[in-house]
Amino acid sequence: MSRLQPLPLCLILWTYAVGTASAQSFFPPPPEHVTTVQSKLEPGITISYKEPGICETTPGVRSFAGYVHMPGSVLADTSIDANYTLNTFFWFFESRKDPQNAPLSIWMNGGPGSSSMLGALQENGPCKVRADSNSTVLNEWSFNNAVNMIYIDQPLQTGFSYDILMNGTIDPNGGVSTFDSSNKPSSSIDWLNREGTFSSQSASNTANNTENAARTLWHFAQVWFQEFPDYKPNDNRVSIWTESYGGKYGPAFSSFFEEQNERIANGTFKVKGELYQIHLDTLGIINGCIDSLTSETGYPIMAFNNTYGIQAINQSTSEAAISAFNKVGGCKDQINNCRQKAAQLDPNFTGANNQVNSACLDAYTTCQEDIENPYLDLSDRSFYDITAPSADPFPPEYYNGFLNQAWVQKALGVPLNYTESVGSVNEAFFNSGDYPRGEFLQDLGFVLDSGIKVAMVYGDRDYACNWIGGEASSFAVQYSNAKQFASAGYTEVKVNSSYVGGMTRQYGNFSFTRVFESGHEVPAYQPETAWNIFNRAMTNVDIATGTVSTVGKSPIYSTKGNSSAFNIKNDVPPMPKPTCYVLAIASTCTEDQQSAVMNGALVQNFILMEDDTKAATTTSSGSTSSGSSAPKKGDGGKLEVAGAWAVTLSLLAGIVLLLE
After folding, report:
1. Of 161, 346, 473, 520, which one is the catalytic site residue?
2. Among 28, 208, 560, 644, who pairs with 351 as Cys (CB 3.0-4.6 Å)?
3. Can 219 be counted among the known catalytic residues?
4. Which of 462, 518, 587, 629 does the annotation list as catalytic?
5. pLDDT computed for residue 190 by the predictor
6. pLDDT of the residue at 559
7. What is the mean pLDDT of the chain?
8. Any idea which of 50-59, 234-243, 355-364 has the lowest mean pLDDT?
9. Count of Cβ atoms closer than 10 Å to residue 599 Cβ
């Protein structure tokens, strides 16, 4: 889901005030020491990878970063006419404990078009990036403590994934001007028009909806699980954990994978080389936007009547939004119209029917303007944390600078600059009206009835995909134990001997958890709580205590307690002071700070230096990463940023506010 916002005037006028332009090249270094494996499944498919030796520096624990390269012909089962190569980036981290016998989980951020490096470096991965944007600290609550983790940049063009590599400049409107040696522009380019190497930025060269993204990832998984030479586990269980727009990715991808397993098992799917059954174990959804019809009214409720006592809008505005949802021809009617047309004209979710796309896009736009936007227009509070300002300093964006360090890109073996959120993917999904489509609750029901565990986890300060709407979606899932799940009560999530991290409702393989004192990215705000929920779900024990087995029990495990968790109220923390990080200037800097940067204020390590500015550090505890996670000797500590045009794409992420 996107929030289209106008670019502030000071950014339109902003020139190269952050530093002095020079003849320094901003292109990433050529990949080297990369191992390439030719696929035995199909001609033209390869896996290229290397061991980066960065981020995960725990002795004896390995990681591998690389690509699965596939010809566009693998997408013959979609509506996409792909005349390009699919180069999908992954970063695989072995489990810190017994990787040979550990299960594996895929992690995907949302967007659509938001890189999963957010998860790896800002949330639940092995390290967090420090305030210098050039070194890391180990994360003691990393999801790879006992699970093999693979972070995937998808759909195509997201993060380090690419279709076609292009050298050129990108402007504030997302326009790309390519160049070669005959028309290469001067190296003195302002921050809003940066030169670098990037994917095509074409909305035609990526998945256009969630279902086609599922099909694409399944082809990736067939190659990776069968042929990546450094993953040969004894435990072949695979889980999917995702966030935000992952409320759609997770159900759709899991359902599609399970349907493919059934086709392979009964012999109705016989494509040579793609007969590997992916044994799904757990689906985890963190602050996911799942179903518009059931969750939309959660926005005005969250904005006015939340557990923190914050009235970001007044009562009349909240009531008007709810009325707008229910009125004739309003948001609800348009969502139903979208879904009716989709069922009739695009039942296979191809995204190729213009009549369906138009109806669903109209529904999305109406709901956004009438229901969701009053909070954004009136409150000046964060989209991702109602207790924070719109220029929100947390979680810190330091990984943006880190991933555009030339030495980091060299370690990862990537041939292009890093982009946190890519507009082309968002545009493709937006134009197909993907957001209000209604298949995702049905997918969840199918997944649950297939015996797959589902854990829904929601930070209670998030507005973007808030827990009120998430809870409503959990009740709307139709599956064989829906009545029993709704009857289960809330009980405390005991994180350790002295801390209760939230409230959870669980019946058998389905749980819904409200996490206290957390915004959108729960593992960043409450790392210990998030890890415990993740670990308990993955190891078949109850979310509440981690001591009760939830498999093979008779009667089926069920929590007991109050029917609602809304009665537990929270204290409002002090509102944090914005820390202006220029690589994410639209989301972290106030208008005054943006003006200061425009007027040549001092910027160090991409942070605007003000009289009372103190460079923040990551909140993770642990030992510092060593070796490669520091500036190379002899560079004087200078930050060598490969592709400072990433600033432009971060600015674009301010125009199109993505669900990360």
Report:
1. 520
2. 208
3. no
4. 462
5. 46
6. 97
7. 85
8. 234-243
9. 10
